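Reproducibility note. Readers wishing to regenerate the assembly model reported in the main text can use the exact inputs given here. Chain order matters: entities are listed in the order in which they were concatenated for prediction.
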Amino acid sequence: MININGSTVRIGQFGVGPIGLESIRLVAKKPWAQVVGAVDVDPEKIGRSLGELTGLEELKDRFVYGSFEELWEETEPQAILHTAGSSAETSISQIAPMARHGLAIASSCEQLLYPELRAPESSHRLDVLCKRHGARVVGAGVNPGFVMDVLPVCLSGVTTNVRGVFVERVVNASTRRGPLQRKIGSGMDPEEFRQLFAAGAAGHAGFRESAALIAHCLGWPIDEMVETCEPVIAKSVIVTEHFDVPPGKTCGLHQRVVVKSDGEQRIELDLKMYLDAEDPHDAVRVDGDPPIEAIVKGGVAGDQATVAAIVNSVPRLLRSSPGLLLMTDLPVPSWA
Amino acid sequence: MININGSTVRIGQFGVGPIGLESIRLVAKKPWAQVVGAVDVDPEKIGRSLGELTGLEELKDRFVYGSFEELWEETEPQAILHTAGSSAETSISQIAPMARHGLAIASSCEQLLYPELRAPESSHRLDVLCKRHGARVVGAGVNPGFVMDVLPVCLSGVTTNVRGVFVERVVNASTRRGPLQRKIGSGMDPEEFRQLFAAGAAGHAGFRESAALIAHCLGWPIDEMVETCEPVIAKSVIVTEHFDVPPGKTCGLHQRVVVKSDGEQRIELDLKMYLDAEDPHDAVRVDGDPPIEAIVKGGVAGDQATVAAIVNSVPRLLRSSPGLLLMTDLPVPSWA
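Running the prediction on these inputs yields the following structure tokens for the assembly.
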């Protein structure tokens, strides 16, 4: 609920998939923001009104453009919500033109949570570009972006001699959208899922980034980072809105990432995301003096939370110094 | 574990009570910091070596001075840990001379968590002074400073349409120091405790500040803030290291603060702190879409956590813009 210099922030949406549309709906409700338009590559969407796409009458005169340049020419946004994929390299190439106009960009791109990990050179160039043009970029979200990285870092602030960080997250994927159920391998032959994960085409994106962000904040050099992912196998038939999974087939994943630093296992992130998972929750343990153990009942999950994390970051991003930033460079998260 | 410009931060300690001594011990272990000296008004402490007072041999050539001016003349600190009382007015008068030298000051003063509440004019003057001289001041701690304010604000970052924030904290005071056991009324006649609380001489300090910080971050104007405190009465004899409490006498407190905004009850903080309390914990509920509910098992408590919160804030404070700052103006807390 922050008033930015007394006027509303002009926000553009880059990517008009389900998350992009939810972002637009949320921004439309914010007194500090206004939606000025959107960008998508889908010819079916270009030229259509956001009123029509979102069902919000007040957006009938806001449109989808085929490129950022057109959006810029027509609407001059001050901030962009970027929800267009998981790859840092691709996102950076999409974001660079926005940075040249000095905009603030909050992105759901999982790899942008800690861009140096997979795109060190492009990240450096984008950071320089941001600083030159007064632009700000941050990767935001719930996971990655909060429960398995920012929250444990935050809890480490009230302890000392931190020796390890452990996070366990269990998500009941039955309550999530079709694309997420597909990403976790629903209905697949277990061997096929393993091969897809090995090829980088399935699994939870941004897991290594969560671990790298924690290591960065706690000053732990990464000697070794090992990520594994095993399919969870359906024991009986599972029926969701999107998939029917017979017994013996994949109904989700169990993904882990472990980081060693200075010869010790310091970070362990454990994610179970499968259909009909019982007791969904997020559990964080910071092994320090004193030890801290926190549980988020039910876990933080769902598109509403994801979109909230991205939109809520905008006012803090606008108050930060220019650059390609980390969530932990921004002030404490808060509802905005 | 942050390296500040490649050299260690020269830290002075203002106030050499039990918390001050713990601060010094913690700073002495930090690779990014060094203890340069301390200040206290107690003639018994002035001139003594911090090696002697802390038991740390490496501090034998660091001393307690009778005033900040002497500490400054002799040691030129860059940052000060201020642990010398709960009153914003008193703390601000002690901190102003430090701000004139452009230092970074992290204070345990409870009222400095949200100084505008009780000392609006002095706060404004200190903020101007900080900006003029490049100084930074923040009030830090566990409670106030984290579990009942910063943590719920942080959790609000992954939700939206926030309608209310509720925090319940239960502390087993039997595990805490004598002064804290005294502050919560241990052994007192219940009526005497009520009178002392009404006179501002007993109870948990900084509770209103926690509520005001939440309201500030969530953009809720405060229509009404009501704070109450009732003694918890011992049912049978309670024996601790510091107090023997007979049945019928006070063994702790149940303090509440409730904030109404725009006609709705928005914030409710509930603190039970008493001897032999069972199931100590911190529970945070953010009533938004989605709702978020988190439990810190056992609760975050104890001098180690308090001192950690203060010392850990220093690197973030040094990276922030000058001013009298709030914890929520600083980047996400983290172990440093």
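We highlight two features of this model. DSSP finds ten helices and 15 strands in chain A. The two ends of chain A are 4 Å apart (CA to CA).
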